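Supplementary Text 2. Reproducibility record for the structural model of the 297-residue chain.

All settings were left at their defaults, and a single model was retained for analysis rather than an ensemble. We include the record here because the model underlies the residue-level annotations in Supplementary Table 4.
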Amino acid sequence: MNKDVCVYILTHNRPNDILRSLNSVRKQDFPNLKIVVSDNSDNDTTTELLKDLIRSDARINYIRRGKECSSANAHFNYILATNIHEYFMLFHDDDEMLPNMVSVLYEYLSTHDSFSAVGCNAYFNINGKNTKKKMFISKNIQIMEDSESVVKQYAMGNTAPFPSFMYRKSKIIGSKMDWLKGGKYCDCSFISTIANKGGVVYLPQCYMYYFISPSQDSQHHEFFQYLSLIKFLSTQVEDRSILLNMRIFNIYNYLRDLQLKTGNIPYRRKALFLFYKYSLFNFFPKYILRLLKLYTK
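Retained model, structure tokens:
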């Protein structure tokens, strides 16, 4: 018989999104599903919106959080520290599950005892429209048995979205998301850390929609926060070429954001040299096109 799986939906002031996300979790074909709506909103709009739905579905437990979850990072860590379920997920309030997501992740994780977590690919929802564009391109299951393996995938852009992961409590107990290890990118340092506790798996199939929009915080690059992530990861990996690629990525995205904010991208001789020497077929041509204002996305 399947064990329980608890899906925590962490929400903050998103009444227009939470209903779609919650209903996608309610439609899962997994029989032993528990749902916790963990709300750290600063108003009662979400509470009022969901009250009738909560009464009608016994699987849902709605919890209004207080000061212990005053930030997104604290919210995640509070749930990590208080969760009692062996299998659980930390899902976002603006993303959407496909109906078999929980059952597929559970089937893999429960039949592979050594792994700490399993995540999956995702289709993008761009500005409210579901697309067939994928988070990463792969036909094979990616098994990462240590931190360096995770970082290598992350540096190449082949990463499963954070809300797609299902965790095994007994493997990751005591783990937390540390803001000092990457700022808003500390989900990467978290996943890389738990990989050392048993391994992490990416499934290539898409079992969810991952929401992105220009106003979303994750779509704006933070140079110094990413730098703190690189600093932490430098203690975890031996392959220095991975870190070099991440440093170039950091510089390029800093300049990209300047262009998006001001309409102009500054000419930086040092950046041009780095892109040419280490990323001739990737960041170098993009940077040249940006300087010519022929590429602004």
